[in-house]
Amino acid sequence: MRTGSFEPGEKTLLIDPKGRKYLVTLRPHDKFSTHLGTIPHSEIIGREEGVALRSSGGATFIAFRPTFAEYSLKMKRGAQILYPKDVATVLVWGDLFPGATVVEGGGGSGALTIALLQAVGEKGQVITYEVREDFLRQARANVETFLGKVPHWVTKLKDIYEGIEEASVDRVVLDLPEGWRAVTHAAEVLRPGGLLLAFFPTVPQLQAMATAIEQEPRLRLQEVFEVVHRPWRIQGPSVRPEHRMVAHTGFFMLARRLTASS
Ligand code: SAH
After folding, report:
1. What is the per-residue pLDDT for 159?
2. Which atom of ligand 1 is nearest to the CA of 162?
3. Which of 15, 160, 190, 191 is at a distance of 20 to 30 A from 258, taking alpha carbons?
4. Which fold has domain 70-257?
């Protein structure tokens, strides 16, 4: 459930007076403990989001359901996740729409998968290729903890460089080391007008991808860009950027499938 009062078994995010966030699974007889004291879960279960709770040490914590961004940063990782700012970018630049069929290359920890599944909805479908069984297991646990059952998700323990089995796909999204090795397969399965969006941390990867797209007559390179997210802090009169930030994650490359030439 994403609304209503807190229920046993679900995740809650407890925020301490300094803004530190703790992700907690609610269990009736358990208690949350930090250096600021403890809070029995029974004081959270049945309450509304936004409730203020006093710990045994006298500190006030606020309980909310984690947003997707908060959850993805806190969930257990197999592979490195795609950061929320980049996930957000995939959804708009990748033009994900309800009902779309999306092939995802590299399931990783499932952060991007959650967002794709939400965007396409149950009338759409996400097909995730992942070569590591342990990552796929972790991704499934992460996805189902956040979304519950997801009948519109298909996972394949397969190497996407060897081929994509689907046809007439609306979007192919790649977050894996050698995305250029899947370019021909993406061109093969994308419908005309379909979109290929790939993400890479380094410039040589971007170059290899650009070359592969330029050599593929069915695809047209559209955009290359990165997204910078600079958080700010407001504390009384001190209003300024945070001292620390995630300064680099990666670059996006976007291409579109042309219609077959007559
Ligand atoms: N977007 C993911 C992170 C992906 S990390 C998230 O948000 O959590 C890259 C993943 O690609 C890793 O899990 C890796 O095992 C997988 N991978 C690497 N090569 C692959 C291939 N050829 N086919 C399918 N998956 C691959």
Report:
1. 98
2. 22
3. 160
4. Rossmann fold (3.40.50)
Those residues whose C-beta lies under 8 Å from the C-beta of residue 222, and which sit 6 or more positions away, are 254, 255, 256
- 234: Cα within 13 Å, side-chain hemisphere: 0
Model confidence pLDDT, tens digit, residues 28-59: 999 999 999 999 999 999 999 999 999 999 99
Residue 229, both tokens: 């997210």
Phi, psi of 117 (to 5 degrees): -60, -40
What fold is seen in the domain 11-66?
Vcp-like ATPase; Chain A, domain 2 (3.10.330)
Distance from C-alpha of 178 to C-alpha of 162, rounded to nearest angstrom: 12
Strands (E), the chain: 11-15, 21-25, 31-34, 37-40, 51-54, 60-64, 101-105, 125-129, 153-156, 169-174, 190-200, 219-226, 232-235, 238-241, 251-257
Expressed in angstroms and rounded, the spacing between residue 105 Cα and the centre of ligand 1 is 6
pLDDT tens digits for range 73-125:
999 998 999 999 999 999 999 999 999 999 999 999 999 999 999 999 999 99
Q: Is the pLDDT of residue 262 over 80?
A: no
Domain boundaries, the chain: 11-66, 70-257
- The yes-or-no verdict on residue 261 having pLDDT over 70 is no
Give, for ligand 1, the residue of 140, 175, 176, 185 to mutate: max count of ligand atoms closer than 8 Å to Cβ. 176
Name every protein residue with a CB atom under 6 angstroms from any ligand 1 atom. Answer: 79-82, 105-112, 129-132, 135, 159-161, 175-177
- Tens-place pLDDT, residues 146-180: 999 999 999 999 999 999 999 999 999 999 999 99
Higher pLDDT, 2 or 119: 119
